[in-house]
Amino acid sequence: MMIKFPKIRTTLSKGVTLPSLVFILGVCLLAATFPLLTENLLNTVKSFIFVNLNWVYVWAVTIFVIFLVYLMFSKYGDIKLGSNDSKPQYSFFSWVSMLFAAGMGIGLMYFSVAEPMQHYSDPVFEGNTLINRAKNAQLYTFFHWGIHAWAIYGMVGLSLAYFAHRYRLPLSLRSGFYPLLKEKISGRWGNAIDVFALCSTFFGITTTLGFGVVQITSGLETLHIIPESSFTYQIVIVAVLVSLSIFSAVSGVDKGVRILSNVNVASVIVLLLAVLALGPTVYLIGSFTEGLGNYFNNFFNLTFGTHVYEEDTLPWFYNWTILYWAWWISWSPYVGLFIAKISKGRTIREFIAAVLILPTLFNFIWMSVFGNSAMWIDLNIADGALSKLATDPDALMFRFFEYLPLSTIFSFATILIIVIFFVTSADSGIFVMNGIATKNAKISPKWQIVFWGVLLATLALLLLNAGGLQALQSMTLITALPFSIIVLLFIVSLVKALAIDRSYYEKDFSASTVPWSGESWKERMKQIVSFKDSKSVDRFIQTTVRTAFDELQAEFQSNGIEAQINTYEDPKRIEIEIHHDVVNNFIYGVENRGREVSEYLLTEDNLPDIREEENHFPKSYFGDAREGYDVQLFTKNELISDVLKHYERFIEIIVEQRNEMFISINANRRMK
Predict the structure, then answer these.
(1) In 3D, which of 101, 113, 146 has the Cα closest to residue 417?
(2) How far, in Å, CA of 340 to CA of 431, rounded?
């Protein structure tokens, strides 16, 4: 008797998933089996890139910043990430909370005290006075966690959000190349880009979460909750946290990820205010203010600086600035995809302003409060004790709290926040990885979410136990070089698409279109001063509009063009549609729309009489989501003329080759 195995339902793309898993498992097993050999080999490659090709990172990040600032103030800033009538999916606070939690995560807790203290105590700056060393420590921390970091995330997120939500392409890195590769993004080129994104995302999350587990166990040991930071306890912590992450990811962005991100941001704000109040408050406010001015004064020097004239500081430059740019770039596929996912309905200007300014400002406040508090305590109270711990970032945050009141509460709160950051980073990472592996399938079986979570936990623990995390981190930083080139190509694609977008939506009717005549002005006045209810608008659609469309359909037919009329209910609407095999369909429709009437209109005597609180009107709409308008004053013939205006515009557009992205063969499929 043959045994029939149940068929496992999956949405995974073989062309993306299989090569990615082979590469991920191969690199992780190599790093776990031969950690020192792998680390030395990858470090050699990384060092070569940082020393000889660091200018690529400097120029790439500089271009990202300049381009985004230009877009924010340009005529393209009003373009929506979605159709012209799309609305944001999430409240502003939830949106900013999610992008912030995904973008910074555990690193904000890990480096908030450690980085300023390491700059402050670095031997390369021994020639400076203590005050200048403190100022420089704050300046470089601002530089590494400020506008430049978020410009990297913003550049990737904006490109993906634009092509996914406005062009209705899959939410995938391959979509950012559509203007350059056209339909090739659906083939091997697209698969190769997504394989790169999936591997880069997996490596980045694995290493960050691995270091996060180390910091959590260090904190629990400091609080005497666990006797030692052993691998056994790390297994338990990873099992609990990844289980929470999987549960959150299964719940979806609207529930688990959004709620945890909101809780996370609220928690860090409370912790921030508590440290500000109990630390050297006046000093912290003053140092933040001066540090902000110092940052803006040195912005361009920092942006273009390569330390080529200061050979003594070159190793520091490679190990900090270049490493940071590589780290942010390597994380940008994951963060960019997630930010793009949650940003539908925002304008380009709103997106850039929020992504560049709000997280940057919060990072500056956070780093000022924690970093400057630690340096002030080290200089005035601890007598250099914190400086000696600068190379032990796992324990430094908790040792810092020992010099503040309520130190135990602060330590517990920090561990809780790190845990939430861990979960929010992991759940959004799992969500993004599954999206890449499935080419952004709308619904995936839950076992796939569990699979990515288990794989993430297993390999992170394997590398933690074998000491291979450093090797994987080097691998992640190496992948940043080719990806920086990819993001630069995103700019080329985006420039090309935005120029066409603007031209497409601004194209006016031809000069031959005929405006209203004054022949029926009395009838028009009656229509203007009378307000319609829903039933009267339905009658207008069923009579005037239907008759106009029927005559148009017959005339199109006599000219060899097939047109169909579609009718819908709730709300009442009717449209005339001309199907095409090669180009996008032409659609002109009229629907019953309602709008609230202002209170003063109900009580004003010298205005048209109206008794209902809601006024209805017939509004036109089009197949390309341009904004329609009220057509209640149109006669049958004028309505026919209006449809022909738009059809003439449509014909003029499709004959121009540059508009191919809007009218390609896949446009109809994407619109459905």
Answers:
(1) 101
(2) 13
What's the first-to-final CA gap in the chain, in angstroms?
46
Q: For 466-502, write each residue's pLDDT tens digit.
A: 776 777 778 888 888 888 999 999 999 999 888 888 7
Amino acid at residue number 649: R
Q: Tens digits of per-residue pLDDT, 505-532? A: 766 554 434 455 555 556 655 555 555 6
Omega of the bond prior to 571 within 30 degrees of 0, cis? yes
Structure tokens at 3: 């045994």
Instruction: Provide long-range contacts, Cβ within 8 A and 24+ apart, for 643-651.
Output: 643/548, 643/549, 643/552, 643/576, 643/588, 644/552, 645/509, 645/510, 645/513, 646/586, 646/588, 646/622, 647/578, 647/586, 647/588, 648/509, 648/510, 648/512, 648/513, 649/507, 649/509, 649/510, 650/586
267 versus 292: the higher-pLDDT residue is 292
Within 146-257, residue ranges assigned H as helices are 147-161, 178-181, 188-222, 231-251
Least confident of 59-68, 236-245, 308-317, 521-530: 521-530
Q: From CA 621, how far away is CA 627, in angstroms rounded?
A: 7
- Asked if residue 367 has pLDDT above 60, the reply is yes
Q: What is the pTM of this model?
A: 0.77
Q: How far apart are CA 466 and CA 39, in angstroms?
A: 12
Distance CA 617, CA 545 (A): 13
Tokens of 652: 């003029």
User: Which amino acid, one-letter code, is at 401?
Assistant: F
Whether the Cβ atoms of residue 426 and residue 245 lie closer than 8 Å to each other: yes
C-alpha 113/C-alpha 318 separation (Å) is: 21
DSSP code per residue over 333-377? HHHHHHHHHH-TT-BHHHHHHHHHHHHHHHHHHHHHHHHHHHHHH
pLDDT (0 to 100) of residue 514:
46
Query: Can you tell me which residue has the tokens 């080097």?
Result: 474
CA 336 to chain centre: 4
pLDDT(206) > 70: yes
CA distance 97 to 263: 9
How many Cβ atoms from other residues are within 10 Å of residue 240's Cβ?
A: 13
Beta carbons within 8 Å of 311's beta carbon, 6+ residues apart: none
Residue 444 has pLDDT above 80, yes or no: no
- Three-state helix/strand/coil letters over 365-402: HHHHHHHHHHHHHHHHCCCCHHHHCCCCHHHHHHHHHC
Q: How many CA atoms does the CB half-sphere of 352 hold within 13 Å?
A: 24
Q: Tokens 């506008």 identify what position?
A: 147
Q: Give the C-alpha separation, 572 to 628, whole Å.
A: 16
Query: Distance (Å, rounded) from C-alpha 164 to C-alpha 338?
Result: 12
Looking from the CA of 108 toward its CB, the CA atoms found within 13 Å total 33
- In the block, tokens 């520091």 appear at 316
Give the integer Cα–Cα distance in Å for 229 and 225.
11
Q: How many helices (H) and strands (E) does the chain have?
A: 29, 4
CA–CA gap between residue 139 and residue 71 (Å, rounded): 27
Tokens matching residue 521: 């002005």
DSSP H stretches of helix in 53-146: 54-73, 92-103, 106-111, 114-121, 130-145
Cα–Cα distance measured from residue 203 to residue 476, given in angstroms and rounded to the nearest whole number = 6
Q: How far apart are CA 332 and CA 79, in angstroms?
A: 23
